[in-house]
Specification:
alpha+beta; Rossmann fold
Length: 717
Amino acid sequence: MHRTVKSFLQTLKFSVGCCRYYFNHNYDMVIALCSQIKPQEFQFTKCLGNSWNNTDSPGHIVPRRFFSCKDLLKSEQENWKVTSARYMDTAERIKKKLEVMYNKYTLSMSSPVIRFGDCVYFEENGCIFRSKADGDEGSVEVLLSTEDLGFHDAIIQRIRISPDQKYMATSIKSSNSEESSCIVTKFENLPMVEYIIPNVFSFEWATNDVLFYTSQKNLVCHKVLLATFANRKHAELVYAEQDPRFFVDIYCTKDRRFLTINSNSKTSSEVWLVDCSNPFNSPILVQQRTKGVIYHVEHRNDELYILTTYGEPAEYKLMKTPVGSYGMENWQLVYTLKEKTKLIDLEMFRDHCVMFLKHYGHLYLNVISLVSHSVQSIKLPAWACAFESEPHPEYNASTCYFQLTSPVQPPKRFAYTLVENHLVEQEAPITINCHTLRLEAKSKDEILVPITVFYNTNSKELHRKPLLVHVYGAYGIDLNMSFKAENLMLIEDGWILAYCHVRGGGELGLSWHKDGCMHNKLKGLHDLKACIMLLHELGFSQPKYTALTGSSAGGVLAGALCNADPDLIRAVVLQAPFLDVLNTMLDTDLPLTIEEQEEWGNPLADEKYMEYIKSYCPYHNIKPQAYPSVLITAYENDQRIPLIGLLRYVHKLRKAERDHARSMNKKGNLIPNIILNVQAGGSHCAPLWEDSLNEKINFFWKVAAVLPFAHKGPLWH
């Protein structure tokens, strides 16, 4: 739905202490530029009052003194300088090879194009351009430049064009912050910036000159406002959410009949309708929020089409009801997803609804005729692991365009003709020496857990090859299976890549997430252990050549595995990881703690959740034993993962390692590297993580720092 179903599905989990790493406004024009913004001074806020006695060895933290957070940060930065200096030659070699891959595959990808009326809009290098759909290159005009506006090295997140194409609203943010500004540009003889609205998350045009937008503060959105840009410019409050568990965004239906105000928690929704022809009228409630019922609204021919979890089975369904008969007692079933199916996205056209689905690792298109209610199911090529639909497809279009991709395949364009029911491959996939294998591991409770494996078809003795295992397992969000140029480089170097689709994620639908959150979180840990053990049993590497990587909430399962089964892996590489679940969920002063209670439980109100979280929390279960090497990357401006928690984690882990070494009192034991890299600037959801070439280079040589065996491959020489 205008690329918004994906946004809607992810907004339900949006305010995770960790999940916005994956939240990507796919329906918008997103470009991540390598940041050159000067580091801001880090504000230590709550952590200045924290100190503790430390006995770490020289080179880490100086012994026999009390240290503040600032002291610890300074010590870690000095330690990082020493460690990183050892691998500068390796980093330079990796950089040269990765730049070749990056230039060959990533830079050749075209920017998303938005068609609006007889014009197309696109973004390149921080500028937004417009041209006639049928025009030549000479008809291209520049509408906005972030550099000219003083937004240096900024990220363009979203654009919205007014119905008469006289105004454009654009959200721009720094990679050092999660807060965006909305730039309203008026198209006269020359484009002119009319207004800048700070701290905006989502926005839509209701009419030619009335813009609705949500105001974001401390990572949450609770208010909807409207602004007018005609004769009398003003702004007024339209809606205010009172429940801190809910997050508010707005959306415009494909036919532009209604603007919807969507208030979502992790487990329930409430939608209000604004008539675009009368935007100053009070919004109308569709269905009062009901626990366990999530829903999203589209419109066609005086009927609301509702994507919802209402009714049995507890998977997504497409329902409809006449305009005016809004309550769910009037909703009529159109289509139900089958069990263990993940709804990735949905597009509404005039007479068709196109569902993008994943079922046990395979991708499908389900095309529903809204006239006859017949359903066409198309299985997509087996190599595909992820797909993106065209941004802002035209409501009356007869063809649905989308791209297929995988961790080792650049995006390739496909078209599906809605009337002829015909799939056209517009670009052939590249030929690579890589085999894709889908496996299932039997978890502790006999549930089968999917694994997707990639390895070089020319590789011999796979049990001696390095293995990189990916995990996430939270908020119903899938592992990111889109293309990354560095994955091809690893495959060429003989690495095996494994993606473990554990419970808590969304790969097998809503029930897969439910079975891995709250009081079921340990199931995700059991799944991860079963996946790694199966890979080793089948001859894919072995523990001493295995590395585990995770970001954000993926740090919970990765850190828990380090405590429970450290012998399964040799190294762990984490980015902005969530490692102290218990202390975070006990601190309601943090902006997202209350919202997160529906994912992790509420230890303040329920002693059972207190004990359960304590049983798996990575920080609270560190103990003297042999750990794998650990490399953690943190970001100074991360509002979701407090730096003090990562400093405490690293301090405690080093002490446990040291205590274990002393108790063993054996010479020749391998001493793992425990490294914390605190990067100046950056924020938790900064696109730099995935799109910055520098970050990719850093990742590889960090792997070298914690994986001695990595130097055996040609990549490292």
